[in-house]
Amino acid sequence: MSHVLTLPNILTGLTDLLDGFIARRFNQYSDLGAVLDPAADKLLMTTAFVLMALPSSPVAVKIPAWVSILAVMRDVLMSLFALLASGQFDPKRFPPTYLGKLTTATEIVAISVALLVNVIGWEPWSARLIPWIFYLVACLVLASGIHYFFRATRQQTASGS
User: Fold this and answer.
1) Which residue, 3, 4, 32, 137, is most buried by CB atoms nearer than 10 A?
2) How many domains does the chain have?
3) In this structure, are residues 126 and 117 in contact, taking their beta carbons and an 8 Å threshold?
4) Using one digit for the tens of pLDDT, what is the confidence trace for 127-153?
């Protein structure tokens, strides 16, 4: 069953990378794309976090529920705060930071490693590695969420709103 879960995730990730590469390579940007691409990425991540944390999930290696809750809540709160703080969402006003990008990359690695271990089997190295990856994700989620909050608050204060 885990093979069924893995192939679509791999293909989705690869097509997203290809899409981003093509957009940067040929300087193809749009306001709609600036909103939809990160939204699609977050939807994919949220789906993976939720499905791999469910007790009924058919995978052997599950993402701890508390890590999934942290990751999903960070994204929800960031989106809500951006909407409330700006009145109308302007993606240029809240560009991603390096910490946010590092957090997303770490989340992708954690999900990918968990999926890979589910496919190849639970090995001694994975029993030691997996929990640390999830702790790293949790730390980065908290750090980037706090960083985003203070950055957005500072931006609101500077704009006089």
Assistant:
1) 137
2) 1
3) yes
4) 788 899 999 999 999 999 999 888 877
Print the SS3 string covering the chain.
Answer: CHHHHHHHHHHHHHHHHHHHHHHHHCCCCCHHHHHHHHHHHHHHHHHHHHHHHCCCCCCCCCCCHHHHHHHHHHHHHHHHHHHHHHCCCCCCCCCCCHHHHHHHHHHHHHHHHHHHHHHHCCCHHHHHHHHHHHHHHHHHHHHHHHHHHHHHHHHHHHHCC
What pLDDT is stored for residue 2 in this prediction? 46
pLDDT in tens, 32-58: 777 777 777 888 888 889 988 998 888
Q: What is the CATH classification number for the domain harbouring 52?
A: 1.20.120
Single out the residue of 46, 67, 45 nearest to residue 135, CA to CA.
67
pLDDT band at 156 (very low <50, low <70, confident <90, very high): low
Pick the closest to residue 95 from 12, 2, 29 (CA basis).
29
**Which range marks the domain in which residue 41 is found?**
2-159
